[in-house]
Amino acid sequence: MKRELRVEINGRTCVEDVEPRQLLSHFLRETVGLTGVHIGCVIGECGACSVLVNGRLVKSCLLLAVQAHGKEIETVEGMAEDSRLHPIQEAFARHYALQCGYCTPGMIMATRFLLSRRPDPSEAEIREALAGNLCMCTGYMQIVEAVKSAAKSLKHGT
Amino acid sequence: MEPSAKYVGRKVPSKEAPRHLTGRGRFTDDFLLPGMLHAVILRSPMAHARIRATDARAARDHPGVVTVLTTDDVKRETRPFKPGRYAAGLRKPIDEYASAMDKVRYVGEPVAAVAARSRAIAEDALELIAVEYDPLPTVVDTREAMKPESPPLYDELGSNVAWRGSISYGDLDGAFRQSDRVVRERLKLHRYSSTPLEPLACLASYDGASRRLTVRCNAQAPEVIYDALREALGLEHVRVIIPDVGGGFGQKIHLIRKYVVLVSLLAIRSGRPVKWMEDRTEHMMAAGHSCAQEFDVEAAVRKDGTVLGLRFKEIDDVGGSISTLTIHFTNKLNNLVNTYRVKAISLEGCSVVTNKCPVIPNRGIGKPGMCFIWERMMDRIAEELGMSPVAVRLKNIIPPSEFPYTTPNGNIYDSGDYPALLRRALELIGYDALREEQRREREKGRYLGIGVAIGVEPGGRNAARDMAIFPEMKELPGAGGVNGATVKVEKSGAVTLFLGSPQCGQSHETSTSQVAADILGIAPEHIAVISPFDSEISPWGTASANSGNNFHLYDIGAVHGAATRLREKILALAGHVLDTPPQALSIEDGTVRAASSAMKKVTFADLGKIAYGNQSAVPEGFDMGLQCTFYYKFPHAAPYMVPDKDHRVRAQYSFSAAAHAAVVEVDLQTGEVKVLRYLIVSDNGTLINPDVVDGQIYGSAAHGISVALGEGFVYDSEGQLLTVTLTDYGKSSAVETPRMEIEHHPVPSPFTVLGQKAAGEGAAIPSPAAIASAVEDALKPLGVRVRELPLTPEAVWRLIQRAGRPSP
Description:
The structure holds 2 protein chains of 2 kinds. Chain A is of the alpha+beta class. Chain A has helices at about 25-30, 85-95, 105-115, 125-130, 140-155; strands spanning about 5-10, 10-20, 50-55, 55-60, 70-75. Chain A has 2 domains: about 5-80, Beta-grasp domain (Ubiquitin-like (UB roll)), CATH 3.10.20; about 85-155, DNA polymerase, domain 1 (Orthogonal Bundle). Chain A is about 35% helix and about 15% strand. The N and C termini of chain A lie far apart (about 50 Å). By secondary structure, chain B is α+β, with helices and mostly antiparallel strands. Chain B has 22 helices and 29 strands. Chain B is globular, with a radius of gyration of 28 Å. The interface between A and B is large, with 55 and 56 residues.
């Protein structure tokens, strides 16, 4: 039995019939076509599927799609405006803070969440905030530097 | 005029970043084809059992299921893989298919597959397949497995010791005779993996009318897939497309072929495209582990610390497959002497099959083990002789005056200044002051340790290496190494580049565009590097096969060669158009100019119009078009491209090197190790893109540190894997991963086109040894010796407890 799901995704309303057992991660990828949501474990360990739900950082594989009913979802695809990269994305590009790109969307969302709560985080706070997002390529160094740099850009931008 | 040096070595915008940062990377699982089915694989819950029967009727009848494969189907409809070079040393031919046949030999071995309308339906159907097993006694410990009475995994072999062999260089007996002391040690490395964040994935489609199979998959080496599909399915027309790959590290080179064959067979049988995406648990159980290795080492040393000879016996736990029997042993030849001048060395290998996941190439394969042997022995020799670990290393290190340096086994170290790397690392970390701090802190009950290790990162593979150990090999494996690239000026004046290797995070697009930009005289933003790799469009790049340690030699060499030829062509055509000799022309920003007059210029777009459409405007003898394909072969592959009578052979061709220094604090109560500082002084030759090289170093060091401090696979006595999640496995997050510092001391290679050397897995080679050294140093007052990894809090706590008691 499918159920009607109404969500706002990256600022647009989306109404779809979904199976109750479908995960939010798979709904976003397969039904909505937001393939920037990556699947690395499906049990909430790796963070590659991280999105914001009502402004909070959520691993979308740990939520059923139906649980997002009536909520606002933001994914990495919603970050750039008019094809201009968001300052967080710019900082990641400047610092070469990615290699294979698989963890990247989740890292961007985790950074967005962190900087929305703590605009000026310490390195320890950055590392703590990214602890739920694994990266097998970079050793996190350039990512941490990118987050620091993004924090600065956002501060100067406002 | 000579090409510019505007882009190589400089900071340039990443070509890969924009798509990945906006969620527009294209990974295998992102592709959809019309009518596509979803596959899932049934895996053995048992470590060792005979398959008595499989009943798949209920699954076949399940609504939405289109095709089910059992081991009988696989046997009937595919052919076994040819034992490739990874299986070198196998003494009897043993067929290995894409799935298990009559027997399962590890938990997670594939025993059936289902393709259905949705993944959910396929997973439901999987539960309806009944496989009857006759359990067999399980063998998980190599020492047990080697006993004659141990239940054999392969009846054909009669023993679980699947291979034994040895190789020796120099006068080892003489070395031991002349030594003042023999230093002995038993060392162990455990099973681990790089656990790429994107698990294995494949999308296969088959056009029955033309018998053409197309697979998209995240394999690192397209030729492995290409060969496997042709061998297993008997097809001539196979097209292999490699989209973005979410991390490789060697993990996606070999075993992935099994799954590509199974998914392709599902596609052929169903007549529909079939996609398969491995899940994390499957990946941990069955996608391959780095080999657990055990070493009995003896070093013949003089009183002054000089190592005259080294010999070791190695036992490799290769798991439940014979397809990668000897790779961790043969790879020891690649960094056999590490950075040291030793003249006599011998190694004896023993590959033992066990009921565990098969082993695969992973970040250095046997090289971290070889470095671990040397660096642990250096510390042990220092301890026994009462010398400093640094002094023993410097006593034996190859001095810069001896480059190019030929090692006893025939490797030619191209360039380097190893003592300078080591000294600079000590200086930067403040070694002397740290020793003082360590002494002061110990008095307060705080245990700090300083570890230093040095290692080489070999680059550029030479498969003929294997013949040194297996002279009976009938088929000469690819010697030297060949790799292609195509460069093309489009009609718009933009440049397009086709690489022979796919990429999985090493920024191939950015680095190669920098090289081509300098040669062609056009900014990198006007160069498009074509992704994905497509075997029907791209040139072959079999030597590079995507590895970071091969890319610099072969892909850069191929792009450099293709772009250089294209530049000559551009200048010849422009010279004709501008009525100026080519040597009086220069190229800048996609425009060719004559020195004689500012008015005399022609753009790439103008030249494109002529080369692709105007026969009347070209010089006599000009080949139409502005496109060059170049297959690079390493011009310095001789001597020792193939083994000589003394088994000397170049295992690899360029040698980066790095000194690592680690400062750790060990909590005596909990056994927890904290890395306070981690510093790397690295020589990767000419840096094409410093940010990219830094990223490779940080990433591989972080993995080596995580390997040393906790991550690893654990099996119980029944062969059940206990670490099926990343958390249980113990992967370090951003919190556990220390800050790292890098300083570059490049010594360009005389053998490569730009002086570049390998930059990929390098830092994963000495980092486990550096951490082991630091932890041992911290616990020196207790007399603790670190002989094996991982140094989990529990393992360190046990070392401390054992040291606390008087030895029996």
